[in-house]
Amino acid sequence: MDFTISPRIEDYRRRVADFVDKKVLPLEASSESYDEHENIRLDLADQLRAQARAEGLWCLQLKPESGGQGLGRTGMAVCYEAMNRSIFGPVTFNSAAPDDGNMMVLEAVGTPAQKERWLQPIVEGKVRSAFAMTEPMPGGGSDPSMMQTRAERRGDTYVVNGRKWFITGAGEAKHFILVAKTSDDPRKGLTAFLFDRDQPGWRIDRRIPIMGPEEHGGHCELVFEGLEIPAHNVLMNEGDGLKVTQIRLGPARLTHCMRWLGLSRRCVEIAREYASERTGFGKRLAERESIQMMLGDLAMKIEIGRLLVMKAAWALDQGSFARKEVSMAKVHVANLLHQAADVAIQINGARGYSKDTVLEWIYRYARQARLVDGSDEVHKMVLNNHLEKEGDTFWHWATAD
Q1: Rg for the chain (alpha carbons), in Å?
Q2: Which of 241, 270, 302 is where one domain is finished?
Q3: What is the CATH number of the domain that holds 172?
Q4: If pLDDT is split at 50, 70 and 90, which confidence band does 214 have?
Q5: Which of 9, 104, 136, 379 could cross-link to 75 by cystine, CB 3.0-4.6 Å?
Q6: How far out from the chain centre does Cα 156 lie?
């Protein structure tokens, strides 16, 4: 087993880390850098994005022919971790959700015409995008078979009616991927569509308030009342909506984990720095065994997370859906992020609870990690399904040809 990375990937990792240290992290300390939803101001983000693009650190996840750097999933794992040492990092490099997952699925399954119309503007940073799948009760969430939004074909057009909610980025998005029901077939009943913000027949009903800081464009509830979508804007074919979601969501879940590892490391960095300076009762905090155990435990769990993420990334690069590997990484890293923020706040005391550091920002953000792209319980159920099906071979080692 080779755990080394190529010199090319290391070069990208080093340059990303240097960019974050010098140009991104300093912005976090100023309240002037934030918008009203606690994300980086869009004008500042645009400035950073232009600099990152000029330095060749743009869209690392895409192939060169799509305008990216072609690092593959394992290369992304290394670089995304470095990016998200800053809460402003992913958007800077055009690697933030939901654009990240949308670009990858459009690259994977879009026709040449669809890539030109829908993908390239996102790659170029001209527009943002959203993925509209989740619905309010009794509609589909983790179980897409429950989907209520319907698309009825009328000649060369589909007419969409229904409702979606918690659609990340919808408030700023111009390009949308929509999943709707086109038949009652349990396996081929969903279809994925592309539509533009300016098309009539739909609206944003509200931007849903949440407990944590928001992505650009928030988390919105959408209402479809006769949206007409031409048949040539179907992704893949009618009935392939479930396949499209599988192609998109596996890598997208893993990229969340890649980024969350960076945030987890940032929490440890802030905690270690404070513990090395703060004294009480005649000792630095860093000299106390209780603090050493907290930080040692986090260091171990971060490394476990990195190994899980890298194994899943490797499996994706081999052409697997890596459902088992992605689920394990998702559960572990989501819980790790929450623990890392919590422990770092505990070590920092009142300072950690205040806005003098980004720890409270990360703490509020971290709670959603155990919910988004499938809750812990859903992923554990997926793992048990694999265990029931595979038995002892659940833990098999893949053998080289």
Answers
A1: 21
A2: 241
A3: 2.40.110.10
A4: very high
A5: 9
A6: 34
CA distance 257 to 77: 9
Among 107, 123, 139, which residue terminates a domain?
A: 123
pLDDT tier at 143, thresholds 50, 70, 90: confident
Report residue 58 as tokens: 């743009």
Residues 164 and 175 in one domain: yes
Residue 232 belongs to a domain: yes
Q: What pairing do the DSSP bridges indicate for beta strands 175-181 and 129-132?
A: parallel
Burial of residue 114 (number of CB atoms within 10 Å: 0-12, 13-18, 19+): middle
**Helix 323-348 and helix 241-277, axial crossing angle in degrees, nearest 10:** 30
CB atoms within 10 A of CB 44: 18
371-381 CB burial, b ≥16 within 10 A, e <16: ebbbbbebbee
Residue 278 has pLDDT above 90, yes or no: yes
**What is the extent of the structural domain holding 309?**
243-395
Same domain membership, residue 276 and residue 391: yes
Q: Is 400 within a domain?
A: no
Query: Can you give the pLDDT at residue 168?
Result: 97
Whether 227 and 190 share a structural domain: yes
The predicted pLDDT at position 82 comes to 98
Rounded Cα distance, 328 and 4, in Å: 22
Taking the model in full, what pTM does it have? 0.96
